[in-house]
Amino acid sequence: MSEPADPDVSVRPARPGDEQDIARIQVDAWVASLGQRLGRRRHDAFDRDVIAQGWADAISQPPTPGHQVFVAMSDGDLVGFAAVAAPSTIVALEVDPARRRRGHGSRLLAAAADHLRNNGGEEMKIWAIDPDVVRADFLAGAGFGEAGMRRELDGPGLTIPEKLWHASLVDAS
Question: The pTM is what?
């Protein structure tokens, strides 16, 4: 009996046409993180067209050469994305909630780290919704620590608390 083939998984730079999937994943991830705080119409709380246009601009006209959007692919499907701004910021790192725990986030994080390191970064920083136990566990498992900073963002009818996480990009040896 033969073993099933591993799925075709990869990370590549985003390209025009990816923005709709990126927007869908971002909204679904926010809804998963914010849950009931968004209310009954939580899937309608975010304007996907506006979000998609923002990602289209980020992909086709990055504000600096150090900005990059990466996407995770699995069997031809876009299942996650990361956006970085060199030298040290991960602007976004999201995986489709239905496709988590399959290594996509780790592959995206590795691509982000390589990009930041290759553009002079010595550390990575990412803001994460608080509380989001799944993300906190992922970040801690990837070597991030809490930086002791918090902020609040204005969301759709609510305030969204975030916590800053950081990790070194410098080889400890």
Answer: 0.90
